[in-house]
Design brief:
Order of helices and strands: EHEEEHHEHEEEHHEE
Number of domains: 2
Shape: elongated
CATH architecture of the largest domain: 2-Layer Sandwich
Radius of gyration: 19 Å
CATH topology of the largest domain: GTP Cyclohydrolase I, domain 2
CATH superfamily of the largest domain: GTP cyclohydrolase I, C-terminal domain/NADPH-dependent 7-cyano-7-deazaguanine reductase, N-terminal domain
Oligomer: single chain
C-alpha cells in the first residue's frame, strides 16, 4: 500500500458534506510508485494524462434550482500528485448544495482546487447530458485478443517474463483486451478495465500479451501505476519507435479513471466504452 493512502478517506467511514469544501481533496505523491518502477520525475519515459469522468456532478443555480452534468478532468501524467479517488468523490459531492453564478464559475473553481491538489494545471470540462449522449460509446482500436486460447496460472503479480516478441519483424498495430482487472491497494475492491496497446516495433506475441494482462488479476495497485507498469514492460521488450498504452476503467462511485501513457505528444481521446 502507498504509505500516504493509509491516511486518506479510502476504506473509511466518511461524512458526506453537501456544501463546498475543497479541503476534502487528498493528494497522494506519485514519487513512491515511480520509485518502485525505477523512475523519477526527471526520467519519465512517457507523456500522458489521466482522464477522470464524473457522472454524479450537481450544483445549485443562484435561484436554488439544481443542475446535473458530466464533468471531465484531465490530470497531467507528470503531475507531482494523484488525487485519491474517494476524496475526489467527497469533494464533488460537496458541490451538491452550493450555488454558482454560472457554469464558467464552477469550472474555474474546479480547475483551481484540482490543480492545487495535483500540483500542475488540471483541465476541466463540464458537459451537458445531451452532449455526452450524442457521442455514444466507441470501440477500442485494432484487434481484440480476448478470444485467444491460452492456459493461465498467474494471477497474483504482473509477470513481464510472460511477454514475447519476434525481433525479426517490425510491425505497427493496435491491440486491446477487456480482461484487465486489478485490486484497490487499500480496500481490495476489484478494479475492472479495458487496455489498449498501440505501437511500432518488434512484433508482439498476442497470446503472451493476454497472459501478461491476466497476471494483473489479483495485483493490488492504483489504476495509474498499472498502466505505467504495462507501458514500461512493453517498452523494454519491444524497444518501439512509438508506444501508447491506455486503460479505460469501469466507474465506481460515479467516477471512472482512464490513464494514458505515450512516447508521443499526441492528442489523446476521452471516449466512453460500452462498460462505462
Amino acid at each position: 500500500m502507498h504509505p500516504a493512502a493509509e491516511h486518506s478517506p479510502l476504506g473509511k467511514s466518511s461524512e458526506y458534506i453537501a456544501t463546498y469544501t475543497p479541503s476534502l481533496l487528498f493528494p497522494i505523491p506519485r514519487t513512491a510508485k515511480w520509485a518502485e518502477l525505477g523512475l523519477t520525475a526527471q526520467t519519465l519515459p512517457y507523456t500522458g494524462v489521466d482522464f477522470w469522468n464524473c457522472f454524479e456532478l450537481s450544483w445549485l443555480l443562484p435561484s436554488g434550482k439544481p443542475v446535473v452534468a458530466i464533468g471531465e478532468f484531465s490530470i497531467p501524467a507528470d503531475s507531482p500528485n494523484i488525487i485519491e479517488s474517494k476524496s475526489f468523490k467527497l469533494y464533488l459531492n460537496s458541490l451538491n448544495q452550493t450555488p454558482f453564478a454560472d457554469t464558467a464559475s464552477l469550472e474555474a473553481t474546479l480547475a483551481k482546487d484540482l490543480s492545487a491538489a495535483a500540483g500542475k494545471p488540471v483541465g476541466v470540462r463540464i458537459r451537458s447530458l445531451k452532449e455526452v449522449e450524442a457521442e455514444g460509446v466507441v470501440a477500442l482500436p485494432g484487434v481484440c485478443i480476448d478470444d485467444l486460447d491460452i492456459s493461465v496460472s498467474n494471477y497474483e503479480h504482473p509477470r513481464p517474463e510472460l511477454l514475447r516478441c519476434d525481433d525479426s519483424r517490425i510491425v505497427e498495430e493496435s491491440v486491446h483486451s477487456h480482461l484487465l482487472k486489478s485490486n484497490c491497494p487499500v480496500t481490495s475492491q476489484p478494479d475492472w478495465g479495458s487496455v489498449a496497446v498501440e505501437y511500432r516495433g518488434a512484433a508482439l506475441d498476442h497470446a503472451s500479451l493476454l497472459d501478461y494482462i491476466v497476471s494483473f488479476r489479483q495485483h493490488s495497485d492504483f489504476h495509474e501505476q498499472c498502466v505505467e507498469r504495462i507501458f514500461l514492460d512493453l517498452q523494454r521488450l519491444l524497444k518501439p519507435e512509438k508506444l501508447t498504452v491506455y486503460a479505460r476503467y469501469v466507474r465506481r462511485g460515479g467516477l471512472d479513471i482512464n490513464p494514458y501513457r505515450s512516447t508521443q505528444a499526441v492528442q489523446l481521446p476521452n471516449h466512453r466504452l460500452v462498460r462505462q
